[in-house]
Amino acid sequence: MKAVVYREPFSVEIGEVERPSIQHPNDVLVRITSTAICGSDLHMYEGRTAAEPGIVFGHENMGIIEEVGEGVTSLQRGDRVVMPFNVACGFCKNCLAGNTGFCLTVNPGFAGGAYGYVAMGPYTGGQAEYLRVPYADFNCLKLPKEGHEADFVLLADIFPTGYHGCELAQVSPGETVVVYGAGPVGLMAAYSALLRGAARVFSVDRVPERLAKAEEIGAIPIDFSQGDPVEMIKEQTDGEGTDKGVDAVGYQAQVGDASKEEPAIVLNSVIQTVRPTGRIGVPGLYVPSDPGGVDEHAKQGMLRVAIGKMFEKGQVMGTGQCNVKRYNRQLRDLIIAGRAKPSFVVSHELSLTEAPEAYRKFDQRVEGYTKVVLHP
Ligand SMILES: NC(=O)c1ccc[n+]([C@@H]2O[C@H](COP(=O)([O-])OP(=O)(O)OC[C@H]3O[C@@H](n4cnc5c(N)ncnc54)[C@H](O)[C@@H]3O)[C@@H](O)[C@H]2O)c1
Ligand SMILES: [Zn+2]
Ligand SMILES: [Zn+2]
């Protein structure tokens, strides 16, 4: 079958790989109809990780069940399903507590597994014609037979992940919220904050098309290439700052003129922007080691974060991978009820064979490439 295969930094190609098959009675085989490219894929694409050539990318997957293992009880051939990017067992200590992003079963020696991702276990990615889904009863979310393809595929990762940022920050009705980053995750966080009843949401980025999308959904765009976003937001909040904050950028954070990366700049900006005792959610990715890090500390995943300021302000911060399973059913039902339409973030729907060019353009953030959905 055809699949998106990583070759070397800044290069993926459409390769011919072996079609996956049922390996365990609890597996299903899904024929992929939609699979999205993620900002997290770019970490591997840019050669910032230990991802080896040959890995098949793709953790945001949806499709139609083609084959069902004999131990599967709730699913049938022909069911339309979307899978959380986290592979999870459903029965370990963390899964039972709803923390499915930290499953203790699926990736021995590590808490958490994912499809098509370096160090996240032996699960081949879904930017391909077929995907094997383990623990299928737990990992497949059933969808209506038709409609909302581009909305539902976002249930695999970014809609729940943006929502998770708001959950970590406990965004509540009437609050003022800042979201750093208006990439797909940041836009979903801003959208989720508004769904949760926030009164005002500031969306910080420097990419015009992304800021325009933020404005389109009712957020207030803040262009950090035009000055210090902390000051711009304080001016609009009577000097107080926001009640809550979300970092949807991660360690690839850039300085205002985008001339270089400064991995702690967003963490420090969010600490400064959020008022005393406010909460901060950090779905943006930080890594325990980054061989290409800007200095010795960054190489070991240690950043210069203003912890003293956080202490002074009595803030609370939550971070980590999104437990997609915790929110995907509820968010699916918001889509079905017509109360959420996350696909506003999708800029391109392409065939699988267009993936190499899509990766290149999404990586360069050109031509409005915000979120790409591939249809194998
Ligand atoms: N926690 C999770 O489960 C989870 C899931 C998916 C993605 N992620 C992570 O979330 C992050 C965002 O993902 P994405 O797909 O939106 O990525 P993206 O790279 O498309 O978006 C990041 C955005 O941040 C902006 N940015 C850079 N520096 C900034 C600054 N100083 N201030 C404000 N904005 C700045 C960029 O212009 C870009 O638009 C990544 O780190 C990704 O790995 C985490
Ligand atoms: Zn993703
Ligand atoms: Zn588990």
What can you tell me about this protein's structure?
This protein folds into 2 domains: 209 residues, Quinone Oxidoreductase, Chain A, domain 1; 162 residues, NAD(P)-binding Rossmann-like Domain (Rossmann fold, 3-Layer(aba) Sandwich). Helices cover 26% and strands 23% of the residues. It contains 13 helices and 17 strands. It is globular and about 60 Å long. 50% of the residues are buried. Bound molecules: nicotinamide-adenine-dinucleotide and zinc ion (ZN) (2 copies). Belongs to the zinc-containing alcohol dehydrogenase family. It comes from Saccharopolyspora thermophila.
Can you give me a brief rundown of this structure?
It comes from Saccharopolyspora thermophila. By secondary structure, this protein is α/β, with parallel strands linked by helices.
Question: Span from first to last CA?
Answer: 10 Å
The top-level CATH class of the largest domain is Alpha Beta
Bound molecules: nicotinamide-adenine-dinucleotide, zinc ion
Q: How is the main sheet built?
A: 7 strands, mixed
Mean pLDDT: 96
Structural class: alpha/beta
Please tally the helical runs, counting DSSP H or I stretches of 4 or more residues: 13
CATH homologous superfamily assignment of the largest domain: Medium-chain alcohol dehydrogenases, catalytic domain
Give the name of the CATH architecture of the largest domain: Alpha-Beta Complex
Provide the gyration radius in Å.
20 Å
Domain count, please report it. Answer: 2
Order of helices and strands: EEEHEEEHEEHEHHEHEHEHEHEHHEHEHE
How large a portion of the residues is in β-strands, by DSSP E?
A: 15-25%
**Molecular shape:** globular
Unreliable segments of 5+ consecutive residues = none
In the CATH scheme, what's the topology name of the largest domain?
A: Quinone Oxidoreductase, Chain A, domain 1
**Proportion of residues in helical segments:** 25-40%
Q: What is the β-strand count?
A: 17
Organism: Saccharopolyspora thermophila
Cofactor: Zn(2+)
Pfam family, one: ADH_zinc_N
GO molecular function, one term: oxidoreductase activity
